[in-house]
Amino acid sequence: MDSRSVADPTAPGGSEDGSNLHSGAEANENLENYADLYEYYSQFDGEHWDRCYKCKLHFSSVEEASAHFKAVCPDLWCSRCEATFKTPEDRQIHLQQGLSHWPCGTGACLFNAPQAKLQEAHWKQTKHRYECRGCNCWYEKRYWDKHLVTYHACSRCHQHQKSEEERKKHESDHIKTAGVIQCIGRCHLEFHNVGDMYSHLESGVCGSSIDQSDVIRCFAVHQGAEYLLFKDRKGILKRIFEGKNIETNPFKCPGDGCQENFGYFSSFLKHTTGKKCKFEFKESGSESSMLTHMEKNLFVDVAISRIKTMAENTNSGIQVHALYPDVPKERSQHLFIPDAEALRPLFVGIVRSYHLLLKEMIFQESDNIKKPGFLKIRIPKSFNRQLGFLEKSFNKANQAYVKQVSSKRKPHGDIFVYFQSAKMGQPGWKFLQDVDKVRKLLRVMIEHEMPRYEQHYQKLL
């Protein structure tokens, strides 16, 4: 027993956190009236296992004693300490006040509490275990996610559901009750109004990597988009679909007497929810609603587009070459050219990991405005493992690229990544940027399929 931290169950009070754990100095004061540590702890111990006072029996082995007490006199036996008691009251006092009955039990943690409530407080503070309020049980991290997924537990209240569909419906009811809107980019962030949510997406900070161009492109596909655009509506739509820049304020409010124009869809939404304008979008849920269309299609369309583009570009492999910058001849001797031979296997490793990950997905683009595209993960655990490999490959390549290129003084060369199947290429920084967007989007997707319940748990503490 380590005397640096002694639990004194007889002391009223305890340490600052109320755990009754004392420092070495405090422990020494508590122990000064006892001859030794054995005397201090033995006050809560039971009798030796070799006898049963109630049945007046003697035992020759602890196995024989254990079998008897478990079958005949369970109220006189402590299986953890292998000790027996004269009365059930003595055993109860032992269980409540004796040590070594409420350990952490997680990994190498040596914490041991004199009471169950202190054990639970330790778990909450250290996150060594998580409480499922649906079944009032505590689970180690390695079993936590599996338990909640198996029983389709709500990520907020942990109430168990019969199916995954019922869990999603139950959680959506939570959101409605709370009066918040969950990000349709599947990053789990919540907002008080739909305008703020779209502002979050347009800024590009969403974990899904969706940005303004993605929002406006999904908007333009809806049958009512032309009615909500300013001036040359057909021309604006054409430029949107071609991926070209559009005018500063493409959105025009169709409300009676309203002449407001907006540069962002989020600004348009905030305007329609105000008191000045009478125009308003149909609520999400209506089949013809623009908001329903965006909710169903935005994430899926962006995900499929990026996944498919990356797959088609790298389908036949890539070539990696050093790229020389255009500089005056008198400065050419100061150029730094990256080592393409060293970076090539790292970039090729990204492509190899990505195509292994593709085997874990099924996706199909939408060919009907009323029917969203199809995107599904075959086996979430396998997908998560392959995504981990892609992330490791990306991190290695990105670190090497920064060391070889980005951190060097200008003028410096770059890496040119040539896509053999697409017969085109792009600078190394652009390739890594595109991979990073796909990586982030796929990470958000898997976390949406397999929610990290501990995040919601921490919010509720």
Tally the helices.
16
Output the strand order for the largest sheet: 15-18-19
Q: How many angstroms separate the termini?
A: 33 Å
Structural class by secondary-structure content: alpha+beta
Q: How many strands, which pairing sense, and closed or not: the largest β-sheet?
A: 3 strands, antiparallel
Structurally, the number of domains stands at 4
Note the beta-strand portion. 5-15%
Mean pLDDT: 76
The residue fraction in helices comes out at 40-55%
The Cα radius of gyration reads 32 Å
Beta strand count: 19
Overall 3D form? extended
Low-pLDDT segments, ≥5 res: 1-45, 452-461
Topology, element by element:
Blueprint: E1 6-7, E2 21-22, H1 24-31, H2 37-42, E3 51-52, E4 57-58, H3 62-71, E5 77-78, E6 83-84, H4 88-97, E7 102-103, E8 112-113, H5 116-126, E9 129-132, E10 137-140, H6 141-150, H7 164-178, E11 181-182, E12 190-191, H8 194-202, H9 212-221, H10 233-241, E13 251-252, E14 261-262, H11 265-272, H12 290-314, E15 318-323, H13 340-358, E16 361-364, E17 374-377, H14 380-406, E18 414-419, E19 424-427, H15 428-449, H16 453-459
